[in-house]
Amino acid sequence: xxxxxxxxxxxxxxxxxxxxxxxxxxxxxxxxxxxxxxxxxxxxxxxxxxxxxxxxxxxxxxxxxxxxxxxxxxxxxxxxxxxxxxxxxxxxxxxxxxxxxxxxxxxxxxxxxxxxxxxxxxxx
Length: 124
Known about the structure:
Elements: H1 2-15, E1 19-21, E2 27-29, H2 33-59, H3 62-78, H4 80-90, H5 97-104, H6 107-122
Antiparallel strand pairs: 1-2
């Protein structure tokens, strides 16, 4: 049964029928131009707020510093897939379609943590 469901998932991804739901509830087909635009936007936003987190840590102390470190760790973990995808493209490394889909599907989690990072940074 597990092999059958895995084969079905692979078929859906390769056919472009697999969808991802963004944090605002929009459903995007994984092979659509809108999904590619969404992934790129999330990647750029997380890059921006990761830099802001580093800058905010410079003058922070105590509980504020610990909170910024916690959010940075969460951001790095949640966005690792998008960072791997971007690094592969930058280095002209080929990733298989399943790996690309797997990495791109992490975008909603990355988006959610990026939103939290923005909230924490601007809460001063």
